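Hi support team,

I'm opening this ticket because the web form for multi-chain structure prediction keeps timing out on my end. I have pasted the exact lines I submitted so you can reproduce it. The total is 1059 residues across three entries, so I didn't expect it to be a heavy job. Is there a limit I'm missing, or should I split the entries? Thanks in advance, R.K.
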Amino acid sequence: MTDKYEAVIGLEVHVELKTKSKAFCHCATSFGAEPNTHVCPICLGMPGVLPVLNRQMVEYALMTALALNCRIADYCKFDRKNYFYPDLPKNYQISQYDLPIARSGSLVIETKNGQRAIGINRVHMEEDAGKLVHKGNIITTPYSLVDLNRAGTPLLEIVSEPDLRSPGEARVYMEQLRLILLYLGVSDCKMEEGSLRCDANISVRPQGQQQLGTKTEIKNLNSFRSLERALDYEITRQIEALAQGERIIQETRTWDEDRQVTMSMRSKEEAHDYRYFPDPDLPPLRIDRDWVERVRRSLPELPEQARRRLSEEYNLSRYDALLLTASKDILDFFDDCVARYPKPKVVANWITGDLARLLNQSKLEIGDCRVTPALLVGLLKLLDEGTISGKIAKAVLEEMFTTGEAPDKIVKDRRLIQISDESAVKAIVDEVIAGNPKVVEDFRNGKDKALGFLVGQVMKASKGKANPELVNRLLREELSRR
Amino acid sequence: MELYQYTVQEIGEMLARREVTASEVLAASAERIGRVESRIHAFITLTLEEAEKTAKELDARDEIGGLAGIPCGIKDNLCTRGVRTTCASEMLEDFVPPYDATAVKKLKAAGAVMVGKLNMDEFAMGSSTENSGFFPTHNPWDLTRVPGGSSGGAAAAVAAGEVFYALASDTGGSIRQPASFCGVVGMKPTYGRVSRFGLVAFASSLDQVGPITRTVTDCALVMNAICGHDHLDSTSLKVPVPDYTKDLQEGIKGLKIGFPREYFQEGVDRGVRDTIMKALLKFEELGAVVEETSLPHSEYALPTYYIIAPSEASSNLARFDGVRYGYRDGNARDTVEMFSSTRARGFGPEVIRRVMLGTYALSSGYYDAYYLKALKVRRLIKEDFDRAFERYDILASPTTTSTAFRIGEKAQDPLTMYMSDMLTIPVNLAGIPSISIPGGFIDNLPVGLQLMGPPLSEATLLKAAYAFEQATDYHLRTPVLEV
Amino acid sequence: MALTIEEVEHVARLARLNLPAEEKNMYAQQLSSILDFFTILNRLPTDGVEPLAHVLPLFNVMRADETGPSLPRDEAMANAPLAEDGQFKVPKIV
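Hello R.K., no limit was hit. The queue was backed up. Here is the completed structure from your submission:
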């Protein structure tokens, strides 16, 4: 039944900007501080106070808008969004309504069917509200407490077009967006701390139908997983409702993480009427070409640019490029290694292979681990010089990973230097041949596998230190001689 | 002559020459307050103890000058650190701000001695001070009449000699109209000339802080102290502040004065019109060129104002919800109910009326017809002034349509009350400066003369006002309050 | 333009004003006559007139991203009608 329907999803993403001070006052932006210790008359909405715009908020908005290929407005303004809520000190939110800072952008995501550009409808600036702490939950609580530390934190709202077609695509879009924001350095993007938040608009329609179905808005999506699951749930719910001839009600629903369902947030309250109007306290912004170009020039390399660079300059596969750009730290690590050791493919293999495996096992990020680019490159050089074998190198990497010690020290301390002395290896080879007459016989009878076994025996006898190439050559020579 | 009767300028000089001490001057004000306040009711809060401390500190200084040591009053919508700031509303009856308004801070830095916070229409919404949530103020010229509003307490206190000057605010005439009714000088500076930080917002795009004084020179002196850029107010102008006393005596020979015919039409009392026409003759005598002109969109100013101001107010006053400060109805079961009953009880009827009006004008389906339309008409009104100032240095008119009306006379009909702001409102819509000075008397009640100028023309307005003041004796008359 | 009681109630709800029944009538009447007065604006054609939201020709007023002192918590909370654990206390939300 689900095959007959298509989901249409648009995301409204709120991202807290990493400015030092709040959007309109000097209070420090903070997470986890004692309640109401980062507040002043301005962000408390006391009588008579006035907002003054933080320039960095605008700069970050411009960076983000440019990274999302948006058209920057040459003129934009701030509006008041009027609604009453106890965590909103002025009972209006300073936001942008009809003239946002940027419109009409796009973000390219990888899907099963290749790359797809998802439209960005708009990017606008606004201020965050405070936090309500409920005794119990929002329904059963007898009272709530208001902490306004977060009130006035600068936010960007990034609204996508309804171009996403599945929960998976929505997730990939969010991940890609997060990656871009992290590369830009404009936000911490910590979903669990609320510095990256997402509301989803979703409707379903029969495959092939042009007209959009009635949408619902889902709130309280605090992780990629809950985004995907909530959308899955909501798609099924809507399809089942339609299949039973019911109508979808346009409404706001909340994702219940415990019960894994979306629930209607309908209340006796009237529909919202935000009564937007231009904020008389804040003069408008004129964003001229010079300003935009200055910001454009200051943009760091973005994930997609980095991927292209890796493919074009280093001939790496798209797959490798995706892995190496999965975080800014990984990319920086890679670039650092390549600057010290110009064999990109080798570096890529070690990072995406053994190092990634170790990181995964210990649930660490590359920035947190003790292997630095200098250490990894040191290891690769030992390998190139023939001081250690590939197998030993893996062991040394593990050692480096836990101790953070230099590879040459590890090799020296643990006597792992490769034996490349021909007479020493030949002695072992002779020993092995003498000790395995049956296998030698097999080899002579054409069983190629037997050679592998003999190599293994030599390596084992040398505690892995014998140069494998040398072992191979000497074995072949000895066997053919007899 | 008693000490309280001197002007700011005179007291300032006497203090500088050490002929009196700040403590003596304060004592004179305090004594005057003791004698007349029970009939005027100008003050919501008196801060005489604090004032005494300040005066003593000033007396201990080696030098004293400018406004230092001179007692003043502050309209109670200007925040004063550690002193309750009520906006004459039950909503803020116990609100004590932890900060000073910038204009207050500047006065304090100049050594001003604040003796108290002055009565007003609640949240500055009104034209008679009858909308005070606490009590009405009485006009010193006739205690049965209103002092005007919303800065009625400020104008009455200055006229009655309780303070030497006052700091007030003007959104649609709230400084000039009471100055006119009480026979004193009131200036609304150019929008952006004085910081609005700490002025409890009524209509943010119209509000401006300004002085109420007994003479034009005093007005210039206070302007010198309060004007200037403030980084806490994004709408504050980064323009140097001249010494407004410097050119006062320059004279007005050749000054071009236009009088807009729309300000002398029906709706303005005949007596007021005649009085101001006579004032215009005086300007001609003084060498000015006086001509009739037109501000064709004048009749639209009042409805435009009463859409824009309440719209902004509906949003500005949303913060009064009983959560962080102010009155709160403690019996509500949920937040919606708590907000709604707190606000219904904490606000008086005029505030409720304007919040409702503004909410309606901004609401879905009505925004274009009301708010947006008003913003468009606002531009036409401003362009009227722009055009007029291409030909004239300043414009002159009556400040009010009548002399002070009786307490209770207009209280029942909001619309009639609104009409009394007809002549002062356009100035706020255009953001330009304006001053009201005593322009004559009718039946022993003062008539205000309003002068209006292009943006940042305060010095010119003061110069013209000074010339008129010096050529007349209206500013020398004082109300008789002795029993 | 006559405002109905329902419209008055709607506006009062939006503005969070819990009006007693008898006052609703009063406000309906008063607001209606004020709205009537506004109709003179309709006589004035304003097509093509740019709305004027800010009288000053000010743009791009911004401050540097620097932190300054916040209020001590006791000062921030000093005016609070009800507080608990350094937070503002409100009745339940719904």
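A quick check on our side: The domain at 3-257+391-476 of chain B is CATH 3.90.1300.10 (Amidase signature (AS) enzymes). Let us know if the file doesn't open in your viewer.
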